[in-house]
Amino acid sequence: MDPEIILHKPLKEIVIDNPIFTDFFHSFHIDAQEESKSFIELMDQMNEAFWEERACSRQELTTLFIEFINGICAADSQTKIENLDVLAGVNKLKEPEKCSLHLQTGEITCIVGPTGSGKSRLLADIEWLAQMDTPTQRKVLINGREANDDTAALFGGKLIAQITQNMNFVLDMDVENFLMLHAQSRFLPNAEQMVKEVISLANELSGEPFEKNTAVTFLSGGQSRALMIADVACIGQAPIVLIDEIENAGVNKKKALNLLVNKDKIVLMATHDPLLILLADKRVVIKNGGMEKVIKTNSLEKAYYKELEALDSTLQKTKDFFRVGNELQSGKEL
Ligand SMILES: Nc1ncnc2c1ncn2[C@@H]1O[C@H](COP(=O)(O)OP(=O)(O)OP(=O)(O)O)[C@@H](O)[C@H]1O
What we know:
- By secondary structure, this protein is an alpha/beta fold.
- It folds into 2 domains: about 5-75, no CATH class; about 105-115 and about 150-295, 3-Layer(aba) Sandwich (Rossmann fold).
- The chain has 14 helices and 10 strands.
- The strands form 2 sheets. It has a 6-stranded mixed sheet, with helices on both faces. The chain has a 4-stranded antiparallel sheet with strand order 2-1-4-5, with no helix packed on it.
- A hairpin with a 2-residue loop joins strand 4 (about 140) and strand 5 (about 145).
- Helix 9 (about 175-185) crosses helix 10 (about 190-205).
- It binds adenosine-5'-triphosphate (ATP).
- Adenosine-5'-triphosphate binds next to helix 7.
- Keywords: ATP-binding, Lipoprotein, Nucleotide-binding, Transport.
- One of its GO terms (molecular function) is ATP hydrolysis activity.
- This is Lipoprotein-releasing system ATP-binding protein LolD.
- It comes from Saccharicrinis fermentans DSM 9555 = JCM 21142.
């Protein structure tokens, strides 16, 4: 964030990009949300009454604003997640794990392994910011440093978002109000616009569209997951997203992952789905509760993904054909 650029940017864009600036403008009674002038342009047109009311000079306010920008830059560099490491612990037999795991922002990593091998345990260790205090004795590092409650506190409870198969709502509220509540709790100045975007994205991800006034308790499993993914991507600011098996969730998996990765997050996903596995940048193989090896998706696998995608699309078309009550008559319908 360059102060020189911020000083010349329309105020309404500044607060959309970084809502925390709203506080600064608010304390000087400046309505930034509607202001298309830049800070410098605005200062140029202010009269004596403006400065008297605020008990400061143009020079003082500009200095304060630059200090505020620098403060945000310093906080940003502290709270920017670049990578996460899971240092090897032990498997279920208490033998040392064969490898550690390194995750980077903008990358998708899958966790693969047979049922019961320990995929969810690995996600739980990260969610827990394990420090050799779980059965696996793994240690989680964030940006190379031991993660603890203070690390989580730096993000105000927004460090990690989790999306699982068994997500149910118990809230008696419609989709729009639910999202609005979340957006407002994150102080997003463009909450209404963001809520609209989340609903439209969720409807793109889910096979069965829903309305903004649908009660969240009425959403199907797939619709809930689609809503959660769109919410995590757009409103939630967590830089680390853990996903436990979305393969049967009734969402457009590829779109969902692209959406999350475009927002520059670390995405780690336990899955049995070969499409998701090949869509990822790499995968960690779990055996007997231990990390066995990390495999980078190679070019052959990436090419094979295309073949698999064509098969998957045929399967999807077939599912859609039968689930709306069609029958095969001539054999040419599909
Ligand atoms: N290294 C370990 N040490 C001790 N217990 C472990 C270890 N890894 C996994 N476990 C335990 O093994 C059990 C099964 O693990 P988990 O539920 O993570 O498997 P999974 O691969 O997610 O299974 P599924 O594919 O069925 O969802 C859990 O009780 C988990 O706590």
